[in-house]
Write a structure and sequence with these properties.
single chain; about 850 residues; mainly beta; five-stranded mixed beta sheet; 10 helices; globular
Length: about 850
């Protein structure tokens, strides 16, 4: 292979990894090595890409101690997390970003999100992730905040086998009293054995046979929650044939079992005669057991140095059993208690075929193609709520079962999401007016669909007083039901649909050029055309002929983009970028059904009248490189949105608040970000203990501000939705819902990361302290029509310590990992404030986690 081919291949695999998979039979290569191969004297991927990017590789994963991609990305400039699994880029929540695996979009098992939760993807199966913050026509047009592309591990050059085990302790959970319930005998595997299956029903929605789980899945106390633990096995092989063809195989399989207990305030606020008042004041306590399974299988075939094909199969699954108790006092001073038992199964399966080809007869032109099919699902086969109330028994108050009806129910829900993706990309080097130019063009096709269904069962009947004081498993027993005292019947979700269908089809094509005008000036420009159609339909399962289809959201877009890079010197350059991008509503945001977010117990209602959002983007960044792994950058950005999609507090469901979605008329977002990385050799300080060691400092800071306009009308979901009668929007003035000039939902003013590390390359160890800070942000937008202020969330300030050490014992190679997370046990809090009154809506402590891992390499 010529040096030119090698250079182009390596750059295509890293700097442009959103378009192609990593080289099939290459070893895992750090970003520094890649750039050295291009003969540049400053080894940093950000220097050679036309877009403004941030890159994390396997070395960064080890340094930060991140077990999944979501937590790893919190160390990237301008990025933070929502709910611990969705990435917020430059103050724009996850709906403004896209997540791909080897360039293919991922389906999502989350009911409220089209973006896959990134906590499902362990860093151990990935070679790196590239975050592109400026738009290029090769990317999907849905690019408000950024594009996140994960690349799977490359196939090996030689056989290997790795076995690792890990364990951890959390100060709030481990060996402390928690809440549990007896589930099925196979729960520890992450699979239910059928105990939670819904029963067959008659024409009236009544079960035709009893099933045990209605009376057995009851919350219990457990004195000691066990330690967390996990195991992973990885291996690979390579076969070189006499014909010159090579075949490589890579496989990895992991299992993790973890526990988390949360306890804190859980209050509901509303407007009363004296302003903001607490509707229900309570305490929320929960224990969740998560079982994670994930695996990767890769097969690569290199026919010759210019042609290779890779087959990738990825499966990741997370099941959780949660027991939760809410206790408190309502506005009428009645003491209440609600018990919840839940089981969720989230999974993503993807199969990919990726090809990379160099055509020597066409001036080393490059062709990359991909085909991918993926399925995601969320199965919640048994969500149970039991309501209690207090009574006086002569010896004080105790809880007894509340009346049958809407406060006591069992819910079954299922969501299936499928994605088919195909892409073809060409890069043809040409001479344009004597200038070296890469002509780029290609296209992509995306077909996504999602079906969801929910079934609520309720108890109906009159319960004798003497039975109400019994244990809950006795009240719900088969004997009580068979005696006719209680009847279990599917009740539906009153006034709202419980079935939904959604589909999205996108056809895209692009063309562009990347021109090296001279040694100092580089210009990249192009445009993408996308035509999309999004369909949504709803139905009520218990009402025949109730299916209702909304008007399709069909629109085409022309999305130009340009980037100019000017190199003042070998180590100093300026980037300027401008582009137009879009953002489409997510499936659940369009579906007017009720969904409960179990993270916060908030209810969500979709809005079928949402529109596509558009954004104009401007970026500038100055980059100064002063050594290997050493640089400082300073950048600024501005975004102008039309019809941005926002969450807001919805007061249309009686006294209980919910969250819905709207298109604000317009919004602006702007900010600046700075990065700094410095490596100092300590050998020259005259201290023997420091000889051969490096001190590393990495720091980044992002300031962001935004303003949302209230000058216009908004279309929102009505308080009741009946699919059989159709749905009409409520048209309201935006100024009647929220204040003009408020901040975008999810935007923090300040984001900061600091890493201080000591590394001994010859000794094979590194130790790092890490700090992460995000300032407060809006979780749900205010509702001025009902006087309700925004819900503001304060994220924890985390300080972590990570230590990694490679060593040999009797010829065996080992890797030891140790980390302490959230050293100062900072917690989470969300609140609403009106005047001098502040109500904490929910809060909890996260605890300090101490973990260790050991890997044996054969």
């Amino acid at each position: 292979m010529t040096q030119k081919k090698l250079t182009r291949l390596l750059m295509g695999a890293t700097a442009l990894s959103t378009l192609t998979a990593a080289p099939v039979l290459a070893q895992d290569t750090s970003t520094e090595d890649v750039v050295i191969a291009t003969a540049t004297n400053i080894p940093d991927t950000k220097r050679v890409t036309s877009e403004i990017t941030s890159v994390l590789d396997t070395g960064a994963f080890e340094t930060t101690g991140a077990g999944d991609i979501a937590s790893a990305l919190t160390r990237v400039t301008g990025l933070s997390l929502s709910q611990g699994k969705f990435v917020v880029v430059r103050g724009l929540n996850e709906r403004y970003s896209s997540a791909t695996l080897n360039g293919s979009p991922l389906p999502s098992p989350e009911p409220l999100r089209r973006v896959a939760p990134l906590d499902l993807f362990p860093t151990s199966v990935l070679s790196g992730v590239v975050v592109s913050k400026t738009y290029s026509p090769e990317f999907s047009g849905e690019f408000g905040g950024g594009a996140i592309n994960m690349t799977t591990k490359s196939l090996p050059n030689e056989p290997f086998l790795e076995i690792s085990v890990s364990g951890s302790y959390n100060s709030e959970t481990t060996l402390e009293e928690g809440l549990t319930y007896d589930g099925s005998g196979s729960d520890f595997t992450g699979f239910d054995d059928g105990l939670r299956d819904a029963p067959p029903l008659d024409a009236n929605g009544v079960p035709t046979e009893n099933f045990e789980s209605f009376s057995t899945l009851i919350i219990d106390q457990q004195d000691e929650i066990p330690f967390n633990g996990g195991v992973r096995v990885s291996g690979g092989q390579r076969w070189d044939m006499d014909s010159g063809m090579s075949v490589g195989l890579l496989a990895t399989l992991g299992y993790d079992n973890s526990w988390e207990t949360r306890e804190g305030e859980d209050n509901t606020a509303n407007i009363g005669s004296e302003g903001l008042e607490i509707l229900d004041q309570g305490t929320r306590r929960s224990t969740e057991n998560k079982i994670s399974l994930n695996g990767l299988l890769g097969l690569g075939i290199e026919f010759n140095p210019d042609h290779d094909i890779q087959f990738v199969g990825l499966a990741t699954r997370q099941s959780s059993a949660e027991a939760r108790i809410l206790t408190g006092v309502d506005r009428e001073d009645r003491i209440f208690r609600q018990d919840f038992t839940e089981w969720f199964e989230r999974e993503v399966y993807m199969g990919q075929i990726l090809g990379s080809h160099f055509i020597s007869g066409l001036n080393d032109a490059e062709i990359n193609w991909r085909l991918a099919y993926a399925e995601a699902g969320r199965d919640a086969p048994y969500e149970r709520r039991v309501n209690y109330e207090d009574f006086e028994n002569g010896n004080g108050f105790q809880f007894q079962f509340n009346r049958p009806g809407t406060n006591n129910d069992i819910r079954f829900s299922e969501l299936d999401d499928t994605t088919f993706d195909a892409g073809l990309d060409f890069v043809i080097p040409i001479s344009l007016g004597g200038l070296e130019t890469d002509l780029k063009f290609g296209g992509a096709y995306l077909d996504k669909s999602r079906d969801s269904e929910q079934a609520d069962f309720r108890y109906f009947g009159s319960l004798p007083a003497e039975l109400r004081n019994s244990r809950i498993d006795q009240i719900f027993s088969d004997e009580v039901v068979n005696a006719g005292i209680l009847e279990i019947r599917r009740g539906g979700t009153t006034g709202f649909p419980d079935q939904s269908e959604a589909a999205l089809e996108v056809i895209g094509a692009y063309a562009g050029v990347d021109v090296e005008v001279n040694e100092k000036l580089r210009f990249s420009a192009g445009a993408r055309y996308e035509d999309s159609t999004q369909d949504t339909a709803i139905a009520q399962a218990t009402v025949e002929g109730s299916r209702f289809e909304f008007d399709a959201l069909a629109q085409d877009f022309f999305l130009p983009a340009a980037t100019l890079t000017y190199t003042f010197a070998d180590n100093l350059q300026l980037r300027l970028a401008a582009s137009k991008t879009i953002n489409r509503p997510q499936f659940r945001e369009l579906t007017p059904s009720i969904f409960v977010n179990t993270e916060t117990d908030d209810r969500f209602v979709g809005n079928p009248f949402l529109k596509n959002s558009e954004a104009n983007n401007l970026d500038a960044r100055v980059e100064y490189y002063f050594g290997r792994k050493q640089f400082v950058t300073l950048g600024g950005f501005y975004k102008d949105f039309t019809n941005p999609i926002e969450e807001f507090i919805f007061n249309g469901l009686g006294e209980s608040n919910a969250t819905s979605f709207l298109n604000a008329p317009s919004a602006e977002l702007y900010g600046m970000e700075v990065e700094f990385e410095k490596v100092t050799e300590l050998s020259g300080l005259g201290v023997d203990a420091l000889n051969g060691k490096d001190f590393i400092i990495r720091a980044n800071y992002t300031y962001t501000d935004s303003s949302v306009s209230a000058n216009g009308d908004v279309f929102i979901t009505p308080p009741s939705v009946n699919p059989a009668q159709g749905v009409d929007p409520l048209v309201l003035s935006a100024s009647g819902l929220y204040s003009d000039g408020r901040k975008l939902q999810g935007q923090s003013d300040h984001l900061a990361n600091l890493q201080l590390g000591l590394e001994d390359f010859d000794g094979g160890w590194e130790a790092t302290f890490l700090l992460n800070y995000s300032s407060e942000r809006i979780r749900a937008v205010e509702d001025l029509s009902n006087g309700l202020p925004s819900i503001i969330e304060e994220l924890p300030l985390t300080v972590d310590f990570v230590y990694n050490h490679d060593f040999n014992i009797k010829g065996g190679e080992y890797e030891l990992g140790f980390k302490v997370q959230n050293i100062f046990n900072d917690g989470y809090e969300a609140s609403q404030t009106l005047g001098d009154t502040t109500v904490i809506t929910d809060s909890f402590d996260r605890g300090t986690t101490v973990s260790a891992s050991l890997k044996r390499i054969f």
